[in-house]
Amino acid sequence: MGILEVKDVNKRFGGLKALSEVNLSVRENSVHAIIGPNGAGKSTLLNCLVGKLIPDTGSVLFDGQSVLGRKPFEINQMGISRVFQTPEIFGDLTVMENMMIPLFARRDGSFRLHAIRSVRAERALVERAEQMLTDVKMIDKRSMHAASMSRGDKRRLEMAMCLVQEPRLLLLDEPTAGMARADTNNTIDLLKEIKESRNITMAIIEHDMHVVFSLADRITVLAQGTPLVEDTPANIKGHPKVREAYLGEHA
Ligand SMILES: Nc1ncnc2c1ncn2[C@@H]1O[C@H](COP(=O)(O)OP(=O)(O)O)[C@@H](O)[C@H]1O
Ligand SMILES: [Mg+2]
C-alpha cells in the first residue's frame, strides 16, 4: 500500500466531470508525477489531496488516515506540504523572516509578524531555519528581501519553508511554471538533492517533460479526469495512449 491512496474519486463542477473514477497509489519515498493536457483535472486532484476540495465520492488516505473533510492546516499537520504554482512568500520580509513563518505559525496557520521579528529567544528555531537554508544553499542570502530574488531563488526559499516543517509528503503544482531555463534547471537540481538526501515522498504536477523525466519514479497520465496509464518514465515515453492524450492521435 502507498503512503497516499486515492480510491474511486469523482468530482463534478455542475455538469462537468472534472475527475472520474480516479485511482492512484503513491509509494513512500518515491517521486510520482501526474501529467496531462490542460483541463485534465490535475489541479482539481491536488486540491482534493490538501483539503481545498472535497470529492463527491471516493476516498483519499494518507498513511491510512482520511484527509477528506479536514482543513488545510490540519492536513499540513498530518505531514503534507504543498508548493503552489506561484511562490507563496512574503516579498517585504527577508529570507530568514520568511523561514520563521512556518516555525511560528499558530495551530490555525496564522502568525504574528512581531513574533517572527523578535526571535532572539527562540535560538533552537533559528538554528533549525539556518540549517535548512544551508541545506538548500541559501544561507548567504538570509538577509536579502525576498522580493529582490530571482524566480528560481523564490522557489528555493518556498521549498525550504516547506521542508523545515519536515513533511512526509510534498505536493508540487507545476513548480517550474513560467521559469527561464536556468531557474528550471536550478529547481530540478534542488528537487534531486531533496529526493536523495531526505526521506520524503513527492507528488508533482508538471508540464515540462524535461523536469518530469529527470525526477519521476512513476508517472500517471491523466486525460479528461481519468488516469489513462501509470508506468515508469521509460515506458511512458512514446506510449500510444500518451501520444493520444497530448496530440489527439489514435494509436
Ligand atoms: N472551481 C471550478 N468550477 C468549475 N469548473 C472547474 C473548477 N475548477 C476546475 N474546473 C474545470 O475542471 C476541469 C479540470 O480543471 P483543472 O483541474 O484545473 O485541470 P488542469 O489542472 O489539469 O489543467 C476543467 O475543465 C476546468 O475548467
Ligand atoms: Mg492546473
From TrEMBL:
Keywords in alphabetical order: ATP-binding, Nucleotide-binding, Transport
Record-level GO cellular component terms: plasma membrane
Pfam family, one: BCA_ABC_TP_C
Annotated ABC transporter domain residues: 4-249
Nucleotide-binding is among the record's keywords: yes
Alphabetized InterPro entries for the sequence: AAA+_ATPase, ABC_AA/LPS_Transport, ABC_transporter-like_ATP-bd, BCA_ABC_TP_C, P-loop_NTPase
GO MF entry, a single one: ATP hydrolysis activity
Record-given protein name: Amino acid/amide ABC transporter ATP-binding protein 1, HAAT family (TC 3.A.1.4.-)
